[in-house]
Amino acid sequence: MRRSFTKGSVATLLAVTLAVAVAAATPAGRTPAAAAQASGCPAIMTTDEVSVGMTGTGLSVVQGRDPVSFDAEVLGILTGFPLPGRKVVIAELSGPPLNQAGGVWFGASGSPVYMDDPVTGEEELLGAVAFGFSFGPSNLAGLTPAEDMDDLLDPGASTALTGAEKVALPRALRAQVAARAGVAPAQIGSLVRLKTPLSVSGLGVRGMRQLQRAIDRQDLPFVPYAGGAASASSAAAADLEAGGNFAAALSLGDVTAAGIGTTTFVCFGQAVAFGHPFAFTGKTTLAARAADAITIARDPVFSPFKLANVAENAGTVKEDRIAGIRANLGEGPATIPVQTLVTDLDRGNMRDGQSDVVLEEFLPFLVFEHTFTNIDATIDRIGPGNSEVHWTIEGTRAGGAPWALTHTNHYASPFDISFESVFEVSDFVSILSSFTAEPIHITSVDLTKVDVEEAFEAYRLSKVLVWNGRDFVKKDVVRRRPGGSVLMRAVLRPEHEASPVNLDLLLRVPANARRSGFIEVRGGGSLFGETPCFFEDGEGECGESEPATFDALLSKLSGVPRNDQVTARLQLGEPARTRAKAVEQVDAIVQGERMIGFRLIRG
After folding, report:
1. Could you give the 3-state DSSP secondary structure of residue 216?
2. What distance in Å separates the CA atoms of residue 248 and residue 231, rounded to the nearest whole number?
3. Which of 17, 63, 308, 546 could cross-link 291 (Cys pair, CB 3.0–4.6 Å)?
4. Where are the beta strands (DSSP E) in 83-122?
5. Residue 263 in contact with residue 242, Cβ under 8 Å?
6. Within the chain, which residues score under 70 in pLDDT?
7. Amino acid 496: pLDDT
8. Which DSSP string do the residues of 169-183 spell out, in sequence order?
9. How far is CA 51 from the centre of its chain?
10. What number of other Cβ atoms are within 10 A of residue 549's Cβ?
11. Residue 26 DSSP code
């Protein structure tokens, strides 16, 4: 039986990854806006009413914002995909847009397809283009039924389960599809979700290469391309329409990252799009944006895809389900600003940059890429150098209480100072945002000072000598009584000049010491520096577990030494129990470490 769309409730939480693409069109004998939903929600056609050979039209955008039409013919229905109890309508699409592009393209996911009721003649929404075939570009597509997309207006009716990645067609349907495609049945392959064009601004060649490697490594269904930036401050709300462009943004500003698809229908102040998941997380918070299509890029080997720039605000994506995504139109979501002030000390260039994260889970990646590319843009080169970076991370904890963490550090690289300068702040953000013992939210990341110069300066800890009352000498083991002291000299070999540098460090043995141990002297820029590693594997190779409280975590991060410091620690008993510490600082980073045994003299 046919049913009408009903007004649904709203929900919120988190998600991240992305969605897909599909068909196109050129003007036909109908008005695109009227064909979709000139007023109110469209009537829908259930799969029970669909028969092989039915024909209709669809809407999508190939350039600009105006939807154009294409033709569609039903070839059959596939059951049990992408989840048990679900169905996909297999259709052949045709028309000038498909001919020009060379087949169904990535980026038309969500394009609505309409059929006329055979009894009443009323135009009804059959479904949205969402799937293609793995044998390569073609005019064949899988449509997500409109009856399933109806459930997106009622979040409680859908469940975020893991759907099948691909499915083989039944023999009879495979033969029919093969005949239409002009290939042997064995060449048809599987029905797969269309990939999502991923518009990303501000990364440059190096950043896009890193992004592509990450996508390939995780086998994600995205096609990244360099797109334009879109400001998070856009107050205007775009009017979305069926068949029009739809962008789901993870971030805005300097680094704008958004999946490009198509709006299927607009109903009760909500827009449903894509026809498949974006990240398949159920409740989410993403920025719904308009988009301007530039062209459909042809690719005869894989599939064509839509190039589009992310445009003004349209609302907030609230649901990310198997049948598509749903946005509440109007006000956009809150964002997390990431700000940088980068200065090239050699040439006097400065850049004040900002990116705004929509999805908090995307924040560590965004902090890294935003800072990395802003340094590249300011110093206008790839090469060696030193940098000093000062940042403040702010947020809220349980009950909404505010917190802040401020840190300053010095970095050096003989090859790529941009790369070297951004790891630590990104690690800190990742550690903080992944804390599990208390609900923690980051509200801003502000790198108030990123000073970079071309000169490379660094030291290596070559040896540690111990004062014996007359001179500094090499010792493997030091013996002292409780309450005594150990005077040491760290000899630093510069990598940027000839003369060594000596630093003297004094350790006092606690009067209540009861056990022997060891003395560790280490440069802050050592490979085995003190940035906590517990965030990677719970208890990773470093043996650290996550602190039990957020206060303990902040204390741990606040205690991370600068890279230009030399630290001596007396550790008694278990290695984790530090009983005494001495710190000295130089004007460049120091790498390397040395260990000296410590024997406690009793009596």
Report:
1. helix
2. 14
3. 308
4. 87-94, 112-116
5. yes
6. 1-40, 134-136, 154-190, 234-236, 300-301, 527-545, 574-578, 603
7. 80
8. PPHHHHHHHHHHHTS
9. 42
10. 12
11. B
